[in-house]
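User: My instructor asked us to take a sequence, write out its structure as C-alpha cells, and then describe one feature of it. I'm not sure where to start. Here is the sequence I was given:
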Amino acid sequence: MTLAVVLATEAVASGSTPTAGLTLPGGGAVVTRLLAQLESLDVADRRVIARPEFAATLREHGCEVVESKGLADDLREIARVARAAKEPMLVVHGDVIAHREVFARLVYNSKAPASAVVARDHVNDDELTRPLIRISKGRIASAGSPYHQVTDPNAVFRGVLRVSQEETDTLAQAAEKLAELADKPDGLTEISPVRHLWQNPEDTGDIEIEQGDGDRNSALATTPITGDDAPTLLVVGLVRSGVKVTGRGNATLLCERVLDQTQADAAQRAIDAVDEDKVRLSAAVKNNDGFFTTYAVSTYSRYIARWCGKRGWTPNGVTAISMGISVVAAYFFSTGQRWGMILGGVSLYFAFVFDCVDGQLARYTRQFSTLGAWLDATFDRAKEYTVFAGLAAGSTAAAVGSSVHGGDVWYLAAIAITVQTCRHMVDFAFGASKRRRPPEPIPVVPLGTPGDSALDEPEPSKSRPKGSGISHFAVWLSARSEKIQVFHWFKKMIVLPIGERFALIALTAALFNAHVTFIALLSWGAVAGAYTVIGRILRSLTQPRSVAS
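Assistant: Let's start with the prediction itself. The C-alpha cells for your sequence are:
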C-alpha cells in the first residue's frame, strides 16, 4: 500500500482558482483525474492540501481537503503524515498531468529509498520555468529551489516524489526543518538558481530520462511556477540529508505540471497520443540482454507475454511450460536420429523463448515473487542439464557410422555440468561481494545553505582513465568501448550468456552431433571463463581497499 499527499496550492494567473481545478478537454478537473489514477493503483489514502480560498472549488470536484495557510503549514502537515506513515509516501502537485504508467512504476516498481520524476531539458538561464536538479550516475546529486542553487544542472523535477517507508522519518525531519526556515524572515532567501562549474550535462548515468519533443515543449513547461512548492523543497531536503534520491523518467511518458488552460489542453493531447500499453510492453523487455536474445527472441516474445497476461497466465506457469518444453527437447535428442536432433534443436529454442516470456510477463503484469525468481534460476540450470543428458543418451543410442553418432560423450556432459555449476557459483559469489560493498556516502548539506558547494565534484576526465596501472586502463577502455556497437555486442556474446548457449546447443546438435556440441560448448566456455575472470580481477584491483574495523 501507498499513501499520497496532493498539494493544490498553485493559483492560475488570475489568482482566483487553483491550477489543480483546471478543466480537462474531456471534462473533469486535473486533480480529479490525478486522484482517480492513484485510486486505480490501490493508493487508498489520498490527502489534498489546499489554500482556504481554493477549498470550496476543490470540494466541488469531490476532494477531501486539508486547509493550509502557507508553505510552512504545508510542510508541517506533510511531516505529520510522514511521522505516522506505515507505508511508502507519494508527494505530488495537484496540477500534475501524467500517464498512469508513471505513477504505476513508482508505486509498484520502485525499490529506491526515494524517487523523483525528472526530465532532461536544455537549461537556459534566461527561461527557467521548472525546478532544476543535477543527476549523476542515476541519482540526484543536487536539487534546486528558489532558495537553493544547483551547480551545472542537467535535468528538471516534474513535481512527483516517492519516499520509501524506511525514509519517511527523514522526510518528516526535513519537512519540519524547512518549515522552521520558512517561518523565519531570513530563513529561506532567494538565490540565483544556477552556478556553472564544469558543464557536464550528459553525466546522468544509465537512467532513461525524458527527452522533450517540439510539440510538447511548445505549450508545456513554459509558464514559471509562482506559488509555494513544497515537493521541490522536500527533494532538496532529502538530497541534502544524505538520502539516495533516484531520478525516474521515460522518453515517451508524459509527466508535467499544467499551470494554465492552454497547458492543460496540450497535456491531454499528449496523453492521448501515447499508447501506454505499448510503452509498458516495451519496458517488459530487459535492455541488457545478449545479442541472440535481443534480435532472435525479444522482437516477438513480448507479444506472447502480453497474450499470456491477457489470459491470466502467471509467470511461474510459463516457467513450468519452458521446463516442460526442454524435457521434450531432451527426449528428441535422446532418440539418436537426425530428425530427433532437428526437432530437439527447435524445441530447445522455444524452451528458451518461453524462458524469456516468463520474465517479460512478470514485468508486464508486475507479478514479482521470491519463489518466481528462485524457480526461474533453478529451472534454467535444470533445462541445460536435462538437455545434456538427452544429448549424451542419443549419442550412445545412434547407429555407429551415422552422422548423429558421437560415441560415448557422458564424460563431456559431466564436464559441461561441472563447468556450468562452477560458473554460476562464481557469478553468485561475485554478485554477493558487490552487494556487501557499502554504498558511496552522500554528502549532507545544511538546508539553510543556499549554495551546493559541498557537493562539488572534480572535473570529469574523458581523455584518460582515473588512477594508474593496467587495471585502471583496462576498465576505462572497457567503458569507452561500450559506446561502439560492435564492441558492445562482442562483449555481450563472448561471455556466452544463456541465449547464446541455447543457440549454440540447438544449432550444433541439429547440424552435427552431441560430440561436436559439447566440444563447442566447452571451448567457447573456456574463452568466456578466461575473459570473465581476467576482467573481474582487473576491475577488483581498481576498487578501494576496505579496512577492517
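For the description part of your assignment, you could build on this observation: The longest strand covers residues 155-163. Try explaining in your own words what that tells you about the chain.
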